[in-house]
Each structure stands twice: as structure tokens, then as C-alpha cells.
Specification:
The protein has 229 residues and is of the alpha/beta class. The protein has helices spanning 12-17, 47-60, 118-128, 154-164, 182-187, 216-224; strands spanning 2-3, 22-25, 30-33, 38-42, 65-69, 74-76, 106-110, 133-136, 144-149, 173-176, 190-194, 207-209.
Length: 229
């Protein structure tokens, strides 16, 4: 399985490179047919939880702004400034709660002027959103949180889908480098934190792989498959 924080709109590029049929997208919120571009199953955040999430974080982090990700579109507040091309031209709204009217796969919360980094934001958000939503991030150098339905994570969904195929944690290999990978690293019995990843990743993984730029993933896979150098 390809397990990612990416939403479906970012998956066509993945389909060109990887042969995987299905992917777990949006940090566990979707089971997605990558090549047929079809959502197979979803675990979305209810409207009331979305609004409660926005209200709680706005009280605790006044500088924050929001965007919401659905299956195939993305809407943002005017103050939310993406750091990449979101692939859709929209000018945003003043208050994201004005347009929240259906379950969403992910909320993004950003401090656009980087008043706080992602780790600082995460500590606040985990306290404020306990029992309401699952919050994580995928870049400690940014100021961006990724928020899913309560209890949903890469690890939770991977374990659920693996069980359907009769695959246990002992038969699972996983690699990860950031907080949105931690649940997956903790669940898989053979998991590697990347040496150049988030410093807390090693607390959740069983092993440490060499950095990305030194082909750390490839080296571990070669050893697992006992391939000649």
C-alpha cells in the first residue's frame, strides 16, 4: 500500500511512478483506487467536529487560518496562504466555517507568518482537540497542521486494511519521517525512522534508516530481500 498524507488531487503524479493499485490517502481518511481515481472508502470528519476544531484553535492560536480538503476540491480562508500550487484557483473566504457544510477528509491550519512552528502548534492543538479530532503535521520547518477525524491516522487505517488482507503487523514493513507517520511506525513490527527525519520518529520506529539522500529506504529493502549490492 502507498500510505500518504496527500489528498486524491495529488495522486495522478504518483500513479505515473508507482504500480500500487490502492492507496491510503489524507493521513488515513481515504482508501483510494489510485489508477481509476476513485474513492473506495472514507473516514471523514463530521461538520460539527470541523466547526468545533476551527473555533477551539482560533481561540488558542489567534494568528491561525484554515483550509478544508474534500475528495476533489480545496477551499481556504483568504489569510491562508499556500506554499505550493493547490491546483485550483480560489480567492478564499473570510471565515471557513461559512462554507463547511459536509464531512471533510482533512482540515489544514496554518500560521502564514510562521509565528509558531509546526511542533509548537501541534502541542497546543493536541491539548485543545483531545476527543474532537486527530491532529498531526508533516513538516517541522513549516507552520502547518493536518487535522483528521477523531481516531483516524495512517496507522489506524493501515492496520484495518491490512487485517482485511490477512496481513499482520509482524508482516508489515514501514518507513516514515514525520509525526503523521508515527502511528504507522508504531503499528508495524518492522518500521524504520529516517535518520534525517523528525527527531521524535525514533521513539515510534523499531529501527533507523540512513538519510533520504543516502538511499536509506533502498538500502533497507535490499537487505530485507537479500539482494546483492
Amino acid at each position: 500500500f502507498y500510505v500518504t498524507g496527500r489528498p486524491p488531487r495529488w495522486m495522478p503524479e504518483i500513479a505515473k511512478v508507482f504500480p500500487f493499485g490502492h492507496g491510503i490517502c489524507a493521513n488515513g481518511a481515504l482508501l483510494y483506487d489510485i489508477h481509476n481515481e476513485r474513492v473506495l472508502e472514507e473516514w471523514a470528519m463530521p461538520v460539527e467536529n470541523q466547526i468545533e476544531t476551527v473555533n477551539r484553535l482560533r481561540r488558542s492560536i489567534p494568528e491561525i487560518s484554515f483550509a478544508v480538503e474534500w475528495h476533489n476540491y480545496f477551499l481556504r480562508e483568504k489569510k491562508y496562504v499556500p506554499r505550493w500550487d493547490v491546483g485550483q484557483d480560489n480567492v478564499g473566504v473570510d471565515d471557513i466555517t461559512e462554507i463547511i457544510d459536509s464531512p471533510a477528509i482533512k482540515i489544514m491550519a496554518r500560521c502564514s507568518n510562521q509565528e509558531l512552528n509546526s511542533d509548537q502548534m501541534l502541542r497546543i492543538a493536541q491539548r485543545e482537540l483531545a476527543g474532537v479530532a486527530t491532529v498531526t503535521h508533516s513538516n517541522p520547518h513549516d507552520s502547518l497542521l493536518e487535522i483528521s477525524a477523531n481516531g483516524i491516522s495512517k496507522g489506524e487505517t493501515l492496520s484495518k486494511i491490512a487485517a482485511r488482507y490477512g496481513i499482520s503487523a509482524d508482516e508489515t514493513v514501514a518507513f516514515g519521517d514525520n509525526p503523521n507517520d508515527f502511528s504507522m511506525l508504531a503499528w508495524a513490527s518492522r518500521s524504520w525512522a529516517m535518520a534525517d527525519g523528525h527527531p521524535d520518529a525514533v521513539k515510534h520506529a523499531k529501527f533507523v534508516a540512513e538519510p533520504h539522500e543516502e538511499d536509506g529506504v533502498a538500502k533497507e529493502i535490499e537487505q530485507l530481500l537479500e539482494l546483492p549490492e
